[in-house]
## 1
Amino acid sequence: SYELTQPPSVSVSPGQTARITCSGDALPKQYAFWYQQKPGQAPVLVIYKDSERPSWIPERFSGSSSGTTVTLTISGVQAEDEADYYCQSADSSGARYVFGTGTKVTVL
Amino acid sequence: EVQLLESGGDLVQPGGSLRLSCAASGFTFSSYAMNWVRQAPGKGLEWVSSIPGSGGGAYFADSVKGRFTISRDNSKNTLYLQMNSLRAEDTAIYYCAKSGSQGYFDSWGQGTLVTVSS
């Protein structure tokens, strides 16, 4: 079955930049989306269509795509950004969705 | 404001059945595909199933195909997940999620816990 691979963890100091990668063979053909999930809460969409940001998400969140890898970048990380982050896309048929393995972002 | 409220989670024995519901409000329910996503304790997110706004042509993850059925009642603004032949590995929080326009999930409920154990 189709898989999206993320690093298990990323650690960053406040004010620095965090980058989270997500790799999958179908990513050149399918959009990627990113979600933030804090403990005990439902996920929240932070990036859609590779690089679009919902109006309620701070500008420090951005997304990019290159080949089979997409990247979520958090510039000027704040303590409140500490959370689990998941990428999501679809398989090559577009009919079935898949989530990445998840990355825990720790703010030192 | 979009609101999604799941219910129906419970403790059930292996091999048993359960039906989850998701009551939607704040948007034109019949115009949007809806989804179920689950999260086992301490684990990542797993897409379970999707159903178009019209109710036809549903899709399922391989892990639940043949055991789970998704349906919707657009007159009641409610999404359902019928879960049969439940296994221990189906233990999870089940989230209802509204689809955006390009295959993403733009609104989520708070989830309902399903525990499969003897």
## 2
Amino acid sequence: EVQLLESGGGLVQPGGSLRLSCAASRFTFSSYAMTWVRQAPGKGLEWVSAISGSGGSTFNADSVKGRFTISRDNSKNTLYLQMNNLRVEDTAVYYCARDSGGWPGDRFEFWGQGTLVTVSS
Amino acid sequence: QSALTQPPSVSGSPGQSVTISCTGTSSDVGIYNRVSWYQQSPGTAPKLLIYDVSDRPSGVPDRFSGSKSGNTASLTISGLQAEDEADYYCSSYSSSSTLVVFGGGTRLTVL
């Protein structure tokens, strides 16, 4: 069974930075696009960033452009989300999800358990 | 405000059927068949229920079905069971700068 395990969440002050990781296992990581989806407390799902299987193409929501960077290390089967200049409204559970193929934008077949990011002074 | 519009809540009695709508635009639901539905129980990660408008992953009961007409997609749950009580989200590929858009979610209550 596919496994996705997020880490790196925590409490950070506004304007601060955090890097999330998502360790993947039990599938050929480089063959699949990966996506970060977040969920603010009591709110719905929001697509954040996506990256192709090769890592050569990335996509970001307007709300995080210029602040968040998605990347991956296919040799380590790990997905990352570098979050800079964090805002209170970035507070959410961040999920990593596996797309159905090598290019993002399709269904999310598998999800991690999520990691909580809290931005507060 | 979410890109796709869903009713905040629906309800039904065990054994009944309910339908949840998901209205988008000609930039997403209207022109792409990459519409998916997810089920999320409290404190857990979302689970894929329907993809490509009406296909079900293996293991998802055929009580769950999807359809689309114009800019609106729908999820129908027949033979409601207590365990179906959860939040349901639709999503669609989008030609806008946001690659994927989600609905605001619908809470299903089984009476």
